Amino acid sequence: MTAAAGPPGPTLLDDLVAQARAEAHAPASARRRAALEVADTLGCMALGASHPLVRRVALAGAAWKDGGPFRSLADARPLGLGQAVTLDSLACHIDEFDSLHPGSAVVTSAAVIPATLQVAAWRARGGRDLIDAVLAGYAVVTHLGARAGGTDMYARGWWPTSSYAAVGAAVGVGVAIGLDDTALRHAIGIATAAPGGLLSDDRLAEGHYVAAAEEAARGARAALFAEAGAQASWTYLDGPGVRAFGPPHEVAARAPGESVEGCVIKFFPCARPLHGFAAALGRLAEAGVDLRDVRAVRLGLPPALLRFVTTDLEVAGPTEAAASAAFVYAAAREGRAGDALFFREASLAGLPPLPRLSLEANERAAPGSWACDMVLTDGAGRTHALTTEPPTAVRSTEVMGKLHANLAAAGIQRAEARRVTDVLDSLDAIGDIGALRPRSLTRPTP
């Protein structure tokens, strides 16, 4: 193809492409971490494939007879790229169990990995190509989220994941299929031409999840469009993007690999603002506090995070259950704080009554904080105060344990789970990543 010349002078796209290319030089520790991100994403997609919303979206796909060379973990039919990525990305994030980059407020794995996996497997790319692509997509999407303010975007009505998932997916796919720098700029331009990400003023509901998944699919298509010669403006992010999302925040330069190593792999399947709450309850229970003998719980969260959570005892469905502090408390009390299927039940019927729960704004929280301030009053009137950040430690044994638990919950036999794990253990060296897909998982046609 013959590419049109870009605009005079450097643009943000030039910087983003440079960051993406630099990730090829990430240290071995970051490459191992990227492999763990892929492993965790596979487990989240496998478990999420049976979620009621994912099943409904799969069923809706029949309306446009979306045939093609792709397969989703949620649907056995031949699919086009858009539907396959939408389903896998939706399955990844729907249980709130996927990876997150706190500094940019982007759910990185759902934004980048499903799209990159689909296209890289289709093109028979190897594990090294996949890791290069994941590192590049993570670096770009987290830079954009942080540049726009991360959690500060919430107050302005934007969700960074939906705003920038298309760019992260476009970069991941573009690197995986070998786009040159000019084509990669055009892929980013196409992906940024129709930014989404509006955040509801009342409740997130299911549309919130579908929107992010569709953005990931749009990014995958943008990379293929650029490969075919489609071109776009390179200044969307410099001009219109700033006018839409606000003045850019300063983002410190990152060394290759720092973006992926700054992500958090989740061990609680609930809204991220409640992870500190779940961790605090676990610590109190380990210290001997009986969570069944509690009268009241006062929960303080940074003001920007309050719009994502409730204390509702009755909810419309699993997505609202995952955002309710009442369900988190009940799950912790029942020893199921890490069980996504508890939240999928979306009902507290038959469980003992909960203590009185209240939410309040912690105005003292540092900018960008996800910390939880909790004051718990037990049956004897004693108070227990605790401030807890969401867990951030990532140990490979814990991640692989979570992967096996999710595969088992998805109905994968142990032998097949071991085969997938063996592939992941040598991901950087495998020749064809098609071997990553669990053979016994794909759901029957809805």
TrEMBL record:
Transmembrane segments: none
Residues annotated as domain MmgE/PrpD N-terminal: 17-239
MF terms in GO: lyase activity
Family to which this protein belongs: Belongs to the PrpD family.
Name the UniProt record assigns to this protein: MmgE/PrpD N-terminal domain-containing protein
Organism (species): Streptomyces radicis
